[in-house]
Structure formats: C-alpha cells, structure tokens
C-alpha cells in the first residue's frame, strides 16, 4: 500500500476519528468533483483490502473455530451431565434426611397423642360440630365415631364440559370423607349452606388442572363415572387443598391398613384340643421355623444403609449384588413379621435404585457414548426383574440418539454426498444397536418383537430425512436412483445379524419414487413434443469426428447397434429429434431399473409406454402428412430405427433386469409395425 493509503488507514483507525468533521474538512480542501471521486476510490480500495484481509483471517482460523466449537459443545455436555449427577445426589440426600425427619416427627406426634389424646379429638369434633350447624341437612354426619374436621373453605364449581361457572360451594374435609355444601341464597339464622354431596375418601381421586387463563387455580375430583371441577381463591389455597387432600387420603389408607394388621392377632379364636399327635409336630415346626430366621447378622442389619450408600455413590452393581445376596439368604426361609419389615425397607431402596437407573437411560442424558454406554443400567434393571422396562428405555434412548445424529448432520451441497453420510450414520447406529440389544437381552427373547417394531419406526424416521433431501428438493432421476441404490446397499448390511428391513425401506419409499418417475416421464414427454414441433426431418450433422465417436459410444453403452446409421463423414442418417429421444428414453429406462421393485412394475411399464407412444405417433403423423418422397423415405428410416432397433432393446433390457417380459411394450410394438412406401403413389401403407 502507498504512503497516502497508510496515512488514510491510520486516520480512519484513530480512536478520535469524527466522520462529520472529516467530510467537512475534505469538502473544504478539495478543488472539485474530481478530487472527491479520487478520495472516494481510495476509501473504497481500503475497504476492499480490509474485507479481503478479514476473509483470509477467517479462512486461516476456520479449523480453530470448528475445533473450539466442538470443545465447547463437549464441555457443555459434560457440565450438563455433571449437573444431573449433582442434582441426583442432592435429591437422594434430601430423601434420606426427609426420611429421618419424618421418623422423628412420627415419634414426637405419637408421644403428643399419647399425652393429650382426648383433648385433641374433642377439640376437633367440637369444631366440626360448630361448623356443621351452619349446614342444612347433615344431622347424621356426626354419628360416625372418631370423625373430625381436617380442612374447610369456599370454592367455585365449574361445568366439566364447557368450563362455565355453576355455583359457589363450601367444602368440609374430614378424616374419612369430603362434604360439599352449596350456599343458600336466603339465609335462615345461622344456617348458611345446604347439603349437596358426601364422598368417602377412597371413592374419588384428585387431579390437578393445568392453568389456562382465565381458567386457573382449579382441581378436579374424579368419581367414576362422574367428575367435578372446583376453583380455589388463589394458587396458594389450591396448593393447600391438593396437599391436604393427598395427605389425608394417605393417612386414612395407612390407618386402615394398621387396623387390619392389629385385628388379625387379637381376634378371639377359640382354642381347640386336637387328638391328632401330628398336629403338635406341625405347630412346633412352625415355631421353630420362625425362630430359625436369623436376621441379627451384621450385613443384614446394615443392608438398608449399605444400599443407600451404593445408590449415592452410583455403585449399581454393588447394590444389586447385595439384593441378590439377601434374596438367596431368604429364599427357603419362612415369611415372618420381621422378614416382612426388612422386605419393606429393602423394597423402598429398590424403588429408589430403579428410579436412578431409569434416569440413567433417559434421553435427557448424554448420548455420546453410543449403545454401549447404556449397558450398565440395562443389565442392572434386568437383574432387578425389570427387563420390559429396560427394553423400552433402551430403545427410547437409542431412538433419541439416532434422531440427534440425523439432526446434527450438516446438509451438503451435493445430495449424493449427504445421503452417503446419512446412510452411514443411520445404518451403522442401527447395526450397533441391534448387536448391543442381542448382547443385553440374550435371555429375554420376548423383547425381540419390541426391537423389530422399534426398527420399523427408526426406518420411518430415516426415510423422512432421506425423502426431504432427495425427492422434496426435486433432484434429477439419476441422482435419486443413485441415492436409493446407496440406501439399499446399506440396508443389506443388516442381514448379517438376521434383520432384513429391505421391504420396509421399499414400502416407505414407493410413494416418492412413483411420483419421481411420473414427474420425469412428464418432463421427457414435454421435451419430446417441443422437439417434434420444430422437426424439419433432416439428417444430423455432428460437425467433428470426435462428436460422432462420442455418440457411437453412448449408443453402444445403451445396447443399440448404431453403425449402420453412420458413414465415414460426420453425418448420421437419423434426425436430431429421434436421436435425442432415444438417448433420453434409454436414460429413463436405466434409472427406472435402478429404482425398480415389484410395487413399481406397472408404473415403470406404463411410463415407458406413454413416452414411446409420443414418438411413434409423431412419426406416423409425419408419414401421413409429408408429400416429399425423399423426406418421406427419411421419415420411414427413422420409424424403422425406432421399431426394429430401439424398441427390441428396451424390451430385452427390461426383461433381463426384472425377470419378466414387458408385455405392454410388446403389444405396442406389434400395433406399430414398420411402414412401407408404395412406389406407385405418394401415400404410405401401414
């Protein structure tokens, strides 16, 4: 760059540069329009040079940009995974803390109830009685002993079908039922409400209704076959209702269960004296069996805590090993109350372990490890007897991985290159998934049907991406044929593991291929009609021997004997229209045979028949209308070329590739037999 250019660059790069002052000074110093044009050209050259340098720097650091982006993506994935692990650890620790706190709270509440039992019950019943005095028609509510009030409040009831407001109600939640009372329009003394309905807590379910403004703060009560929707005053009141209803239902279930367990040993049973001496032996064996279950071993006493530690440390194998050891120890032992208690503690840990393993297989986790990364969680779920769930989660994980891989595949400018990459990614992933599935579920043959169904759905996802790139973008028929050929070749790789999805691939592609064949057929017919409209029936001159040799090679590759229609010079004894039609039709035939499968048999035959019929009809029309004997003889030579040379090659090539004769083409050739000229007249005879 010149010294003037360097000075201009420094001036423009100065931090104190003011464009308005610069333009003002420049206009004052310039002598005329020419100086301004020269200065403008200098600034433009400087801008072009700056842009060129920027482009060079981008190309120079392009690979570094890509590598940095990949590293950032990997780091983001690892941080996301680490965040999930920490969240999982936190939830486990919170659950352990909550369990310990709930145990202390239960003991404290039992002590308080033991200290003040009558006062608490009496206060609750007194409160309920005072409230029910305001409700009309509830005389027998308090006849049930032990019934007391838990919670109450105003609610608005809405219609379930059209979500229109119905009435204002007041709900009374008791320890064993829910009372709904409507507001009285005309109050009488202390009575404010009228009895509407009474539901036992076990007879209905509570469902949260998602907010959809203006309908919000609602929850639904389901009583088969009916349901009712109520709206709370605000979100806080709604949350209280949901939590208290859930807790009250759980307390009632727990209380009923404990009551049944207590009634069994205390029920009065009259002892009978048996005269059978073997009965005494059986009773002694039972007592001895109960006493023989030794649960005082150190590893059994510490088993629940050890399971918690294994789950927190993600030692899934160790946790399942402990469970297998316990099951083996208790296999032939009688079921005693102490064994049931131990089983209850262990089952809670099994549930937590299952939740963690399910989370490990969720699609939200990192999918970079491939199918082998799921083996650990899948194997432990199978050992826990959850093979069906393991199969479902494994296939969902792999479906998400395949979908992510396809979505991340960059669309290249060349369609065939993109299809090569797409097929390589999809079918390699499918093959790896199948091999991993065989390894993980070797002893669970019932899961194989689920894998076959999953394979078909995965193939449908692949075909969607394939068709969008190949058929929706209106690629040429030759490109589409090559892409389908590549997909078929990759699909054949799956047969090495006994999985043949070729039929599924063909059935999913048949609609798009049929549309592509018909579209290309229409293009050929339109091009042929356009050339026919400009037909002069003159011999074709290729101008150079090289062009003639090239045309001969093209015809030879199509299986057509072209030597008899050429001479020593560059002339061809056929019209340009007929030669162009022959090349285009033979190309359509070859590409159509690459796309062929049985469902497309009639589509391909009818397309060929329609294309050939356009050329034959044009030749027949020219023979009937042409009056010049020389031109008529030339037209007849072209007709003979089509009938005796081209059509037999088309029939033979179709039959060799498909294995069936092309009956429609044979009938067409018979119906359009060669035309001969009557030497005594100018008319043609068919």
From TrEMBL:
Where does the record place the region Disordered?
A: 1-21, 252-287, 665-686
Q: Which UniProt keywords apply?
A: Cell projection, Cytoplasm, Exocytosis, Protein transport, Transport
Q: Which CDD domains match?
A: PH_RalBD_exo84
Keyword Transferase among record annotations: no
Give me the stretches of Basic and acidic residues compositional bias: 252-263
Point out the coiled-coil segments of this chain: none
The UniProt entry, under InterPro entries, shows: Cullin_repeat-like_dom_sf, Exo84, Exo84_C, Exo84_C_1, Exo84_C_2, PH-like_dom_sf, PH_domain
Identify the GO cellular component terms for this protein: exocyst; growth cone; perinuclear region of cytoplasm
Q: Which residues form the PH domain?
A: 148-250
GO biological process assignments:
exocytosis; Golgi to plasma membrane transport; protein transport
Described function: Component of the exocyst complex involved in the docking of exocytic vesicles with fusion sites on the plasma membrane.
- Show the PANTHER family listed in the entry: EXOCYST COMPLEX COMPONENT 8
- Indicate the family of this protein: Belongs to the EXO84 family.
Q: What is this protein called?
A: Exocyst complex component 8
Originating species:
Pundamilia nyererei
Gene name of this polypeptide: exoc8
């Amino acid at each position: 760059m010149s010294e003037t250019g360097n000075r201009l660059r420094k001036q423009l790069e100065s931090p104190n540069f003011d464009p308005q002052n610069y333009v003002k000074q420049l206009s004052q110093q310039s002598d005329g329009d020419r100086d301004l044009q020269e200065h403008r050209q200098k600034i433009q050259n400087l801008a072009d040079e700056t842009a060129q340098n920027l482009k060079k720097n981008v190309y120079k650091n392009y690979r570094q940009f890509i590598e940095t982006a990949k590293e950032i993506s990997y780091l983001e994935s690892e941080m996301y995974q680490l965040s999930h692990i920490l969240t999982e650890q936190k939830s486990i620790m919170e659950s352990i803390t909550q369990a310990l706190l709930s145990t202390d709270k239960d003991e404290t509440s039992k002590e308080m109830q033991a200290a003040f039992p009558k006062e608490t019950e009496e206060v609750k019943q007194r409160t309920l009685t005072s409230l029910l005095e305001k409700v009309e028609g509830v005389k027998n509510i308090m006849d049930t002993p032990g019934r007391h009030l838990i919670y109450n409040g105003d609610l608005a009831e809405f219609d379930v079908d059209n979500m229109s407001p119905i009435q204002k109600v007041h709900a009374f939640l008791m320890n064993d039922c829910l009372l709904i009372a409507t507001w009285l329009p005309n109050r009488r003394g202390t009575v404010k409400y009228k009895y509407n309905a009474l539901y036992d807590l076990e007879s209905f379910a509570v469902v949260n209704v998602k907010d959809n403004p203006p309908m919000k703060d609602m929850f639904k009560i389901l009583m088969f076959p009916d349901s009712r929707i109520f709206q709370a005053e605000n979100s806080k009141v709604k949350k209280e209702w949901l939590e208290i209803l859930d807790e009250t239902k759980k307390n009632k279930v727990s209380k009923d269960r404990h009551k049944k367990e207590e009634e069994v040993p205390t029920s009065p049973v009259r002892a009978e004296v048996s005269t059978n001496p073997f009965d005494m032996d059986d009773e002694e064996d039972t007592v001895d069996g109960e006493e023989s279950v030794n649960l005082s071993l150190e590893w059994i006493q510490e088993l629940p805590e050890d399971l918690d530690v294994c789950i927190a440390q993600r030692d899934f194998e160790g946790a399942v090993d402990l469970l297998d050891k316990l099951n083996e120890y208790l296999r032939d032992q009688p079921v005693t109350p102490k064994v049931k208690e131990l089983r209850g503690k262990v089952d809670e840990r099994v549930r937590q372990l299952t939740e963690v393993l399910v989370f490990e297989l969720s699609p939200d986790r990192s999918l970079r490890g491939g199918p082998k990364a799921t083996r650990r969680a899948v194997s432990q779920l199978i050992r826990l007897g959850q093979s069906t769930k393991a199969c479902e989660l494994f296939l969902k994980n792999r479906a998400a991985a395949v979908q992510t891989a396809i979505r991340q595949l960059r669309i290249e400018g060349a369609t065939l290159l993109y299809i090569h990459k797409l097929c390589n990614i999809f079918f390699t992933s499918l093959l790896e998934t199948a091999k991993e599935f065989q390894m993980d579920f070797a002893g669970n043959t019932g899961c194989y049907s689920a894998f076959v169904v999953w394979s078909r759905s995965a193939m449908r996802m692949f075909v969607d991406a394939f068709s969008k790139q190949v058929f929706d973008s209106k690629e040429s028929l030759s490109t589409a044929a090559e892409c389908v050929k590549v997909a078929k070749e990759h699909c054949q790789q799956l047969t090495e593991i006994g999985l043949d999805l070729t039929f599924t691939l063909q059935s999913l592609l048949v609609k798009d291929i049929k549309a592509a064949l018909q579209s290309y057929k229409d293009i050929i017919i339109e091009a042929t009609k356009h050339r026919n409209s400009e037909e002069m029936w003159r011999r074709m001159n290729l101008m150079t021997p090289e062009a003639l040799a090239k045309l001969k090679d093209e015809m030879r590759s199509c299986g057509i004997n072209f030597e008899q229609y050429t001479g020593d010079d560059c002339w061809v004894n056929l019209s340009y229209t007929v030669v162009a039609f022959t090349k285009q039709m033979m190309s359509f035939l070859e590409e159509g045979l690459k796309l062929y499968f049985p469902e497309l048999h009639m589509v391909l035959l009818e397309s060929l028949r329609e294309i050939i019929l356009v050329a034959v009809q044009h030749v027949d029309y020219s023979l009937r209308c042409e009056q010049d004997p020389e031109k008529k003889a030339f037209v007849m030579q072209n007709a003979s070329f089509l009938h005796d040379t081209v059509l037999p090659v088309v029939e033979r090539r179709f039959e060799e590739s498909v294995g069936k004769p092309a009956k429609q083409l044979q009938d067409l050739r018979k119906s359009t037999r060669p035309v001969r000229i009557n030497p005594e007249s100018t008319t043609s005879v068919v």
